[in-house]
Design a protein that fits this description.
Order of helices and strands: HHEEHHEEEEEH
Distance between the termini: 73 Å
Helix content: 25-40%
Structural class: alpha+beta
Radius of gyration: 22 Å
Number of domains: 1
Mean pLDDT: 82
Number of strands: 7
């Protein structure tokens, strides 16, 4: 192949490439690219302070200085309690949270099922998932812990993940799973 052929191919590719890309219809966005992490599991900041969240700075043996809520600090060093039952949302939801928490300096994301999943009219699975996220901070860690409702479609892609408006939703769901 001559140099002239290579140059012509590169020129055609550069000129026609953008036009060809515009002709293709856009695929629907099934990623969590537009999902925003709720303040309850994001690093401690203005949103958590304006919500009146109380945080404590504590010395945890074997870990060091850790900042978090009393609930989050109580279970450090212990596995998160989980509720039995099939929950097809945990792995997908954990991956989405890890992706966002990674941008904020997370050290570790733990996620466990808080109850068996249910199916909505569209066939999507939804269920509560308990998260504990440890963020690496200068000379200390921050620990965030909360339960979210995660929604995953049949193909395993995230649809949504949100904080329930009322904590009793999770409490009732969890009670059903333990019967």
């Amino acid at each position: 192949m001559s140099i002239r052929s290579i140059c012509c191919a590169a020129l055609v590719s550069a000129l026609a490439g953008p036009a060809l890309a515009q002709d293709a219809p856009a695929a629907p966005d099934t990623s969590a690219a537009t999902w925003q992490m709720p303040w309850q599991i994001a690093p401690i900041g203005a949103a958590s302070m304006s919500a009146g969240e109380q945080t404590i700075l504590s010395m945890v043996p074997g870990t060091g200085l850790v900042k978090g809520t009393a609930v989050a600090l109580q279970s450090i060093g212990q596995p998160l309690p989980q509720v039995p039952g099939r929950n097809r949302t945990v792995d997908t939801c954990r991956a989405v949270v890890m992706s966002e928490a990674g941008k904020a300096g997370m050290k570790q994301v733990e996620a466990v099922s808080m109850g068996a999943d249910k199916t909505d009219k569209k066939g999507d699975y939804f269920a509560p998932v308990l998260f504990r996220i440890t963020y690496d901070r200068p000379m200390m860690y921050e620990v965030r812990q909360a339960t979210m409702i995660c929604i995953v479609n049949r193909k395993g892609a995230i649809v949504d993940a949100y904080m329930p408006a009322d904590e009793s939703v999770v409490t009732q769901w969890t009670a059903l799973g333990r019967r």
